[in-house]
Amino acid sequence: MNQFDVAVIGSGPGGYVAAIRCAQLGMKTVIIEKEATLGGTCLNVGCIPSKSLLDSSHHYETAVKDFKTHGIDVAGEISVNFSQMIARKREVVSTTVKGIDFLMDKNKITVLRGLGSFEDATHIKVTGPDEQLIEAKHTIIATGSSPGSLPFINVDKERVITSTEALELSEIPKHLVVIGGGVIGLELGQVYRRLGAEVSVIEYADRISPVLDAGLSKELMKVMKKQGVKFYLSHQVMAVERKGDTVAVTANDKKGVAQTFEGDYCLVSVGRKPHTEGLNAAAAGVSLNERGQVEVNSHLQTTAANIYAVGDVVRGTMLAHKAEEEGVLVAEYLAGQKPHIDYNLIPNVIYTWPEVASVGKTEEELKAANVSYKKGQFPMRALGRSRASMDTDGFIKILAHSETDEILGAHMIGARAADLITEAVTAMEFRASAEDLARMSHAHPTYAEAVKEAALAATEDRALHS
User: Fold this and answer.
1) Among 6, 48, 223, 242, which residue carries the largest CB count within 10 Å?
2) How far is it, in rounded angstroms, from Cα 190 to Cα 227?
3) Residue 375 class from Cβ within 10 Å (0-12 exposed, 13-18 middle, 19+ buried)?
4) What is the C-alpha to C-alpha distance for residues 309 and 327, in angstroms, rounded to an integer?
5) For residues 105, 329, 293 and 11, what is the CA-based torsion angle, rounded to 10 degrees?
6) How confident is the model at residue 460 (pLDDT cuts 50, 70, 90)?
7) Which domains does the chain have, with CATH numbers?
8) How far apart are alpha carbons 86 and 165 in whole angstroms?
9) Element housing 50 (H / E)
10) What is the pLDDT of residue 462?
11) 144 phi-psi bin (left φ>0, alpha ψ -120 to 50, beta other)
12) Mean pLDDT throughout 213-236?
């Protein structure tokens, strides 16, 4: 029987990063993956392929709408070669996955293909191509999540689809009905709107992405409506029926009046659920909560002392970078170190264009906690860099404590917000004040100047360019 110091079940960002860090720290490590390729949802059917399609569709939209203004004349009609777009997406995924294979070899991590399930707390049965029974001193559960649905919806994966199928369509929808105005629905909705589809987003809450600062939600919806996406807020979906190539979605508005939306595709994006099927967790003494998540303590240790869990399968936001940080934390904890994660400082990003990013507390959270705060907000349209690139939508908002001036939150919508948010994360990790950020020199012309201006506005309401 093969014996290991650490077994990692699942090879998504949480799993493979945990395995690498364990190996770096001298532990004999094995990673078990039931799918044909490593990388989990993120690399195969999530973060990476969706960003590939977002970038491709953005290039197309820019060519159609903005090339002429930029002085670029293209002979003939600009058209979409959708099959090539999908092929490029597959190539990006393939290259990225091969990179994970390389990292496993480089770090001398054993890779076993098959379903990993517990026989007991120290023995794992692998069922599949590499079928065997292994022994592990410690195990890290990193099995991730899968698309959620509603009990009455039959997701046939043909016309009623999840994000997985939406990344592999053979045609551009005529009318894509999206159930759920969260990250997945907005990103994929924007992809297909750019390519010519009519897109209708049905959201149960009274605003899209309700976990965001309300100002970001409002601004993002305004921009996407300008791009042609239709929104139906405070609508409760009651039924989804497929008739041939048509899908009818019936939803009640806040007054209880039913409305039917007909499209050729319906994307169900109502969140994700932790994936624990087949683990046989009970056999190892690992408890799950009522939501199906693995129960863990502050060290991400399960109810079985030698077993840990990270990523989407435990509490908290379902983000790849959160899973990575947790994977590193567990590896270092097993090595006797004292790692720490500040969950308040894990940024959240929506990769629409303009991009949306946030970290720390929202205005709503600060008000609910009776925290005295001040805010500085700066519009992207006031930047020379934004005007040069024709990316003038959005703003950056900095929230700081009204007495200490410590930055409590940063909320951004605009070009490259996904990259800009790291400046705020860095500042907040070092307990910086808004004045600290305001006094830092920012290169000109850059989008990052908006961060400085927002910090100036929060410090003494003295933004220089607005």
Assistant:
1) 6
2) 9
3) buried
4) 8
5) -10
6) confident
7) 2-146+273-341 (3.50.50.60), 160-270 (3.50.50.60), 345-460 (3.30.390.30)
8) 12
9) helix 47-65
10) 85
11) left
12) 98
Using DSSP's 3-state secondary structure scheme, residue 438 falls into: helix
Let me know: does 229 contact 193? Beta carbons within 8 Å.
yes
- 316-374 pLDDT, tens digit each: 999 999 999 999 999 999 999 999 999 999 999 999 999 999 999 999 999 999 999 99
56: Cβ contacts below 8 Å, ≥ 6 apart:
85, 88, 89
Model confidence pLDDT, tens digit, residues 379-404: 999 999 999 999 999 999 999 999 99
Q: What are phi and psi of 45, to 5 degrees?
A: -140, 30
* Residue 308: band (very low, low, confident or very high) from pLDDT cuts 50, 70, 90: very high
For residue 84, give both structure tokens: 């090539």
d(C-alpha 188, C-alpha 139), whole Å: 35
- What are the residue numbers of the active site? 444
* pLDDT for the residue numbered 140: 98
Closest CA to 23 of 102, 98, 108: 108
Query: Are 421 and 439 a contacting pair, CB within 8 Å?
Result: no
The answer to whether residues 378 and 396 touch, using CB atoms and an 8 Å cutoff, is: yes
Which backbone phi and psi does 430 adopt, to 5 degrees? -95, 15
- How is residue 89 written in tokens? 């997406």
> Residue 241: is its pLDDT beyond 90?
yes
Nearest to 358 by CA among 313, 309, 319, 314: 319
| Percent of the chain at pLDDT exceeding 90 | 98
CA dihedral angle for residue 118, residue 119, residue 125, residue 127, rounded to 10 degrees: -80
What three-state secondary structure class fits 370? coil
User: What band does 463 get if pLDDT is binned at 50, 70 and 90?
Assistant: confident
DSSP string for residues in 287-340: -B-TTSPBP--TT-B-SSTTEEE-GGGSSS---HHHHHHHHHHHHHHHTT----
* Distance from C-alpha of 442 to C-alpha of 453, rounded to nearest angstrom: 10
Write out the two tokens for 289. Answer: 């909560």
CB neighbours (10 Å) of residue 388?
9
